[in-house]
Amino acid sequence: MIDINLLRENPEAMRKALRDRQMKESILDDFLALDVEWRKATQAVDETRAELKKASEARDIETAKKIKETLKKDESDLNMLEAKRNELVLKFPNIPDSSVPVGKDESGNQVLRVWGTPRTDKVEDYLSLAKRLDLIDIERAGKVSGSRFGYLKNAAVLLEFALIRFAFDQAIKKGFIPVIPPVLIKPEMLTKMGKGRFMADNDAFFIEKDNLYLAGSAEHTIGPMHAGEIFDEKDLPRRYIGFSTAFRRESGSYGKDTRGILRVHQFDKAELFSITKPEDSHKEHEFLIAFEEELMQAIGLPYRVIANATGDIGFDTARQVDIETWLPSEGLYRETHSASNTTDYQSRGLGIKYRKANSTEYVHMLNATAFSQRPIIAILENFQTADGGVKIPEVLQPYVGFSEIRPK
Fold first, then answer.
1. Would you give the distance in Å from CA 57 to the centre of its chain?
2. Are 234 and 343 found together in one domain?
3. CA distance 230 to 303
4. Are 339 and 305 in contact (CB under 8 A)?
């Protein structure tokens, strides 16, 4: 959640953030008005409690009885205002970092750099190739589960595990702690993670009987691991790499990428997650982006790095940088990785701090993609061979056990 003191003391910063994110500024006026009422109600309760204390000390039973009735009403009014205020504060997004380009949507994104040489000759699109090589079956998945699902088969399965294991091996060398988190999460934990929009937009799958959501990323369940905890300064940064199946309705994308497995309801992903001191979070963000690029360069997939605009960053995010990978069949770069700095937005909701010399302060939390299933698509297209097979990237060959997927 956003810092309430920031809304009170620097409302213009939030007004700008709301404008840049294409959100209505009236929400801030509503909050500030409600906050004034809350403070008046708080003062009234404090004053009534002081009166009650005086009456009790004077053993004035009749007066104390009347004051208790007043106090009961004042406390009820305060609780109602506090509940409304707490509900409203969750509707405020994180404030974008000053480095984030201002733009209403992805059209305002900026290319930071490009790596590799895009393949420009004619290739078979990944879905046709995968069907021919018996790697992906969306027809049978549709029969079993409906649209936006797919079976990975044969070498595609080995490719996924190769990508995940390679990412884990490289991350562990850098001090990341491996973890397999739960895929079910309590609503209050998703809320504290700043994922209210994920729930409100109906993008999350909800199991009503158990009052649990299916996680949309390992980030959703790694972040709350340390809810309510205080780190020692010497123990930061704390870095995790987690593997999880992720579930999303993709409710805002109907009509887009309906074929294949580029945008599906269920997918696997290895996620990087960092907890750090506020003064180190920008450096940590760059570290995560550099690690993503290191993984991509090791595989040899052409990509570009994108600074996301204010209208295209996550609700809980202060700065977001994506990696888009070249898909030759489309002649386009498509997003495969994302790295986000949520500053203290998530940690404030979760109550995660670190201990300084004479005080405690909220940590900063960051997340980034190591590998999902999307790079499999890029591998199938970028490494097609002249005879209709697919060459396995050299660094993945020891994990897969062979060097090429050969046509039948």
1. 54
2. yes
3. 39
4. no
